[in-house]
């Protein structure tokens, strides 16, 4: 891929288009968190049952994760700008539908439609980055901005939600999406170029449905196993995953032009980058959840104060994503990814010490350090995934990249959450009544929290942090191993 450096450099128009692409990225991640603050008012208004309440929270992420790959492929076939603008209109319409929902089933449907529309945003924006920025150095910088936009959205979600709910009713957390989507619909046709595979056949809807059901079954099974352990629902979801994927794989072998080109996985660079991305988000998403629980439930911080304590890590993540291209140019992509994992491991070490001593300031520092280390890993693996495929398949690659993110995060929450729960209960073996309660219920009311429960929670987080640190060191070793096994003809920038 040495000829990539002969491509033209990006100008003002391309970077202005990148600013437009950042808008849906902000909303994409913001809507994963903003609803949490509105749940008390929403529950009072719609009166959902326990199962309906869970579906209101979870259905957005389920449908989003399942639809990412099909939507990425559709973008290659019908046009990435067209899909992005259609998705933006659909997201705005679904947000309005959610804002004026009058019952729990209506809200569940609205959130599902929002997830389906949101699945068009990430693959479309990421694949358009490769169109706007053909030069490798520009593409790395643009992907750093793209990653930082998601981080900003996740960090701003609780803050914006809190401000809206302070002055308006619960529907405002959905209506805020409308002006941003309207801005994208107005400026997108002016600044964003169209890109598609001119030789692509019509999309195969049966393949898309089978792929959607397979990913949906896998993600739902992971969530069920994390929340409730083995159950009939988890088993049915796994069976759905196996059957749907089998049908999808067989259909691809019969189609003259497969819906998803499975030969992409034969590229060592592509497969290695996907694997490293899954590992990185495994330790990141799981840790985000455990730290949030520890801040609120073990240290007794309010939701606002917990958000303030977590805010510096978001700044560190944005800084790491934006600095990654410059550092990669100096020391190379593989070296920076390995160094990023090493920095993350040191951050998890600090987090383990902080959990053992219940030291908030050290915990915040550890949180910032591992966020700073993981940000370049995510930026560079995304760049390798998109940059290692032909331009005509950029949408499919972008969908696979985002799907690996969602799956890695789901596995991380499931495994680390289950591990922390088990360690917490082991630490409270002498207090069986407290150990039998769910962690949140057992730790409510931190002023009266028994010291053994505080210590057990701290020890559980400590062991989980040490595991994450070990996995980060494994990420360093894996990256260096792949680098040493890479063909000599690959350039320093191209080798994952």
What would your notes on this structure say?
There is one protein chain. This protein has 496 residues and is mainly α. The protein has three domains: 12-203, Growth Hormone, Chain: A (Up-down Bundle), CATH 1.20.1250.20; 210-258, no CATH class; 268-487, Growth Hormone, Chain: A, CATH 1.20.1250. 81% of the residues lie in helices and 0% in strands. It is built from 17 helices and no strands. α8 (205-228) packs parallel to α14 (394-427). The model is unreliable at 442-448 and 487-495 (pLDDT under 50).
N-to-C SSE string, H for helix and E for strand: HHHHHHHHHHHHHHHHH
Report the top-level CATH class of the largest domain. Answer: Mainly Alpha
User: What Rg is obtained from the alpha carbons, in whole angstroms?
Assistant: 22 Å
Give the helix tally. 17
Calculate the mean pLDDT score and round it.
Answer: 79
Using DSSP, what is the number of strands?
A: 0
Task: Characterize the overall form.
Answer: globular
Here the CATH topology of the largest domain equals Growth Hormone, Chain: A
Task: Indicate the CATH architecture of the largest domain.
Answer: Up-down Bundle
The end-to-end distance, rounded to whole angstroms, is 13 Å
Tell me the count of domains.
Answer: 3
Strand share of the residues? under 5%
Assign the CATH superfamily of the largest domain. MFS general substrate transporter like domains
């Amino acid at each position: 891929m040495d000829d990539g450096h002969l491509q033209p450099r990006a100008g003002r128009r391309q970077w202005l288009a990148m600013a437009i692409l950042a808008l849906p990225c902000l909303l994409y991640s913001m809507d994963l968190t903003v609803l949490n603050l509105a749940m008390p008012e929403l529950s009072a208004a719609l009166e959902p049952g326990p199962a309906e309440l869970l579906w209101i929270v979870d259905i957005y992420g389920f449908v989003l994760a399942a639809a990412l790959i099909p939507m990425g492929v559709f973008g290659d076939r019908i046009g990435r700008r067209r899909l992005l603008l259609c998705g933006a209109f659909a997201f705005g319409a679904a947000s309005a539908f959610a804002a004026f929902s009058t019952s729990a089933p209506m809200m569940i449907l609205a959130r599902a439609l929002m997830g389906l529309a949101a699945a068009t945003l990430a693959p479309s924006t990421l694949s358009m980055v490769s169109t706007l920025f053909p030069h490798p150095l520009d593409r790395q910088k643009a992907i750093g901005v793209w990653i930082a936009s998601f981080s900003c959205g996740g960090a701003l979600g609780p803050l914006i939600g809190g401000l809206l709910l302070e002055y308006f009713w619960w529907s405002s957390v959905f209506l805020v999406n409308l002006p941003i989507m309207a801005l994208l619909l107005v400026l997108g046709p002016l600044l964003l170029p169209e890109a598609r595979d001119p030789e692509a056949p019509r999309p195969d809807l049966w393949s898309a449905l089978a792929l959607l059901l397979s990913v949906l079954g896998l993600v739902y099974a992971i969530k069920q196993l994390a929340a409730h352990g083995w159950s009939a629902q988890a088993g049915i979801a796994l069976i759905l995953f196996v059957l749907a994927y089998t049908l999808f794989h067989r259909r691809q072998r019969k189609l003259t032009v497969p819906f998803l080109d499975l030969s992409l996985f034969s590229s060592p660079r592509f497969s290695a980058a996907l694997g490293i991305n899954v590992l990185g988000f495994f330790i990141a998403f799981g840790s985000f959840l455990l730290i949030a629980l520890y801040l609120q439930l073990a240290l007794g911080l309010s939701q606002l104060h917990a958000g303030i304590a977590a805010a510096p890590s978001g700044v560190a993540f944005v800084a790491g994503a934006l600095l990654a291209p410059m550092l990669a140019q100096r020391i190379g992509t593989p070296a920076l990814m390995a160094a990023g994992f090493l920095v993350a491991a040191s951050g998890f070490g600090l987090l383990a010490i902080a959990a053992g001593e219940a030291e908030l300031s050290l915990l915040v520092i550890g949180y910032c350090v591992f966020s700073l280390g993981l940000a370049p890993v995510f930026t560079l693996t995304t760049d390798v995934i998109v940059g290692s495929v032909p331009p005509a398949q950029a949408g499919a690659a972008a969908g696979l990249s985002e799907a690996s993110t969602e799956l890695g995060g789901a596995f991380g929450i499931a495994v680390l959450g289950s591990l922390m729960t088990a360690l917490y209960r082991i630490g409270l073996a002498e207090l069986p009544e407290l150990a039998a309660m769910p962690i949140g219920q057992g730790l409510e009311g931190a002023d009266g929290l028994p010291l053994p429960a505080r210590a057990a929670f701290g020890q559980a987080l400590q062991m989980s942090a040490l595991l994450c640190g070990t996995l980060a060191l494994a990420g360093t070793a894996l990256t260096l191993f792949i680098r040493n096994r890479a063909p000599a003809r690959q350039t320093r920038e191209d080798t994952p």
